[in-house]
């Protein structure tokens, strides 16, 4: 029997491919918090603050125990071992998870391999590992859940890890000469993140390296106009350098 915990997107607890995660929102929130701190004890008062913020009911401690009991019952249907993975401690609860069973761990490992390969100049290996990481994180981390402060911070941190992984992978592909192949993806990313000047610069660069100088100049002008109109900013020194290279090409 195979157990998989998925948090990179919506929360799922899959057993042999079937999602058996709880449906109650606050029980899901508790499961998500335990997974975000997998292998570590999460204090009960931390769970209370996460679920109810600064307005916990008088029954918050007892209700938290009930939520954990419901989670343990779900795990017990999988196996006795799975139920034992959710342990009670003097001050809180801990969910022990096989690293291979949690998509976040697999994602972080792939990102680490990709970054290490990039730093060593193994750009093809870096691109492959980072594409694998991107596929593991197709949506917003912990999507569709109520977020307390800890879970919100954790989800934002994961989103930043993914965004940087995309940047390093694009840089790897650039260094491998895959400029033409990147143009469509970069246009989409620029549309999704219109104020990300680094992405605009990579689109300008990819167009220029693909022999599409006039389109590259148009892309630069569009970026400059957007920054000026919306933010009152001028392009960075790096962007202006790319523009000068295009003009002098």
TrEMBL record:
Lineage, top ranks: Bacteria, Bacillati, Actinomycetota, Actinomycetes, Kineosporiales
Alphabetic keyword roster: DNA-binding, Transcription, Transcription regulation
Biological processes, Gene Ontology terms: phosphorelay signal transduction system; regulation of DNA-templated transcription
Superkingdom of the organism of origin: Bacteria
Domain OmpR/PhoB-type stretches: 1-97
SMART domains registered for this protein in UniProt: BTAD, Trans_reg_C
DNA-binding region: 1-97
Gene source species: Kineococcus rhizosphaerae
The name this protein goes by in its record: DNA-binding SARP family transcriptional activator
GO terms, molecular function: DNA binding
Family: Belongs to the AfsR/DnrI/RedD regulatory family.
InterPro entries: AfsR-DnrI-RedD_regulator, BTAD, OmpR/PhoB-type_DNA-bd, Sig_transdc_resp-reg_C-effctor, TPR-like_helical_dom_sf, WH-like_DNA-bd_sf
């Amino acid at each position: 029997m195979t157990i998989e915990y998925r948090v990179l997107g919506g929360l799922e607890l899959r057993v042999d491919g079937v999602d058996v995660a709880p449906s109650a929102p606050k029980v899901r929130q508790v499961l998500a918090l335990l997974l975000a701190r997998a292998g570590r004890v999460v204090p009960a008062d931390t769970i209370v603050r996460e679920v109810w913020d600064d307005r916990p009911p008088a029954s918050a401690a007892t209700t938290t125990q009930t939520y954990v009991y419901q989670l343990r019952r779900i795990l017990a249907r999988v196996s006795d071992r799975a139920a034992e993975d959710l342990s009670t401690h003097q001050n809180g609860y801990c969910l022990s998870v096989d690293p291979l069973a949690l998509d976040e761990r697999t994602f972080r490992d792939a990102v680490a391999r990709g970054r290490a390969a990039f730093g060593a100049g193994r750009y093809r290996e870096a691109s492959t590992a980072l594409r694998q990481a991107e596929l593991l994180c197709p949506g917003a981390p912990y999507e569709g859940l109520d977020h307390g402060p800890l879970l919100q911070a954790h989800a934002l941190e994961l989103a930043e890890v993914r965004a940087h992984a995309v940047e390093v992978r694009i840089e790897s592909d650039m260094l491998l000469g895959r400029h033409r192949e990147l143009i469509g993806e970069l246009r989409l990313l620029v549309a999704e993140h219109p104020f990300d000047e680094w992405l605009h610069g990579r689109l300008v660069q990819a167009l220029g390296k693909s022999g599409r100088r006039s389109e590259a100049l148009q892309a630069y002008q569009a970026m400059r106009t957007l920054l000026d109109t919306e933010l009152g900013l001028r392009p960075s020194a790096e962007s202006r350098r790319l523009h000068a290279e295009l003009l002098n090409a």
